[in-house]
TrEMBL record:
Catalyzes the 2-thiolation of uridine at the wobble position (U34) of mitochondrial tRNA(Lys), tRNA(Glu) and tRNA(Gln). Required for the formation of 5-taurinomethyl-2-thiouridine (tm5s2U) of mitochondrial tRNA(Lys), tRNA(Glu), and tRNA(Gln) at the wobble position. ATP is required to activate the C2 atom of the wobble base. One of its GO terms (biological process) is tRNA wobble position uridine thiolation. It catalyses: 5-taurinomethyluridine(34) in tRNA + S-sulfanyl-L-cysteinyl-[protein] + AH2 + ATP = 5-taurinomethyl-2-thiouridine(34) in tRNA + L-cysteinyl-[protein] + A + AMP + diphosphate + H(+). It is an enzyme of class 2 (transferase). It comes from Kwoniella pini CBS 10737. This is tRNA-5-taurinomethyluridine 2-sulfurtransferase. Its EC number is 2.8.1.14. PANTHER family: MITOCHONDRIAL TRNA-SPECIFIC 2-THIOURIDYLASE 1, TRNA 5-METHYLAMINOMETHYL-2-THIOURIDYLATE -METHYLTRANSFERASE. GO terms for molecular function: ATP binding; sulfurtransferase activity; tRNA binding. Keywords: ATP-binding, Disulfide bond, Nucleotide-binding, RNA-binding, Transferase, tRNA processing, tRNA-binding. Signal peptide: none annotated.
Amino acid sequence: MTFAAVTMLRSAGSYHSICSFSTAGPSKIAARYIPRKRLCSPERPKRPFSTLSKKQVNDLVPSLDQLGIQSGDNVTVAVSGGVDSATTLRILCELPINLDVIFMRNWDPILSETNFSSSPTSFSLSYTGTKANSLTSTCQWEKDWNDVQAITNSIGISKEKVKLVDLSKEYWSRVFEPSINVWENGGTPNPDVDCNREIKFGALMEYLPKSPRHFLATGHYGRVDHTPSLPIKATLLRAKDQSKDQTYYLSQMNEYQLGRTILPLGGMTKTTVRQLANYWNLPNANKEESMGVCFIGERGKFGDFISQYTSPPSSQGHLISPSGEVLGHHKGLWYYTIGQRAKIPNQLQPMFVAKKGVGENKQDILVVPGHDHPLLQCSGVITNKFHWIHGSYPSDLIDQANDKINIQVRHRMKPVPARVRKAENGGGVFIEFKEPLSGVSPGQVAAIWYDDWCLGSGVIRDTICLG
């Protein structure tokens, strides 16, 4: 069956949607995945989070059928200490399934931020830090682990069902070092995409039992549509809350990983999740949302942190104009991002970074006057080998329905329409934007959707600019 045939079944109503009504029989919790009406009238002040009624909560909790699981299934919930994963766990406690909890430690300050050069088995790179005590991890995994234990204790999950798994070595080798290499060479990597592919749905899923009825649940905002009656067993769909949708970060998962994944928050808004957390009196219900890459955290200057892991440049890097004039110097390519303003004295106009890694030694940065300069306007990109979630280039979708294809090159951006075709070699794709995008950099991830259906993503190799 082709992608187009699957799409026709979806539009005809025979393609199962997790937003459909449950068909699993009478149940007080078998309800729609998201209510049709707002919980609070827009004319009235919003009620406190704790005033949800039991009926409203039951209406919000997804059914087994909506999640694509069965009574008695085993589900491991990855809980980070944040409100999203905690609420995910509490939601699943309402269902007749077997639950256990796992917490991942991905960044180990002892291994990653201390120089053990005398040990032949130590990591080759280390962060020396600028404070007296550089062993204090800004990621605060110990605090998060304590939060996880407090959450599970408040819910009533026994201690033997709550485990910590140390994946810091896997994170270092599969995510961190490759990202450093991209930064060092002038690109802009996305460690969060790599982490989901390699760690959360890679190393962690490998750690779980291989039973087909054992699933991994996370607090991501996205939807997985499990459809056993079709050749495509699981598809990744955008979350209902478009402002929180995280399918960009999940775009390099494969169909096997999706088939073992459930995302209970996919039909809810962030506000609804907070309401549920307060209704259930979760200890972290009002915990602030964590932002940014875990290993960087609140360290201050990003460039200074990355510098601790990079090799010194072979030659001095310069800030140069389009005519080749040297306007200044820089300490490393990773200190700058495409589209960023470059603070250069004695310039008639503000200067912006247009390209990195240029010049004879590939250490120079091209800067241009004005944020709307043609060299900042990207009309298209070429990717490295593209990762298609379902294994191959879906020509019957992409070649015949370009009006439904949309692209993102960053998480927090509005999806944009584009034309997609195969690149000449290397398994990549050429993406031509219908309107130019500003600030696109090699190393970033370009993800493709057909309507709300995520088809996959690839790392940008080259950009084509108007200039």
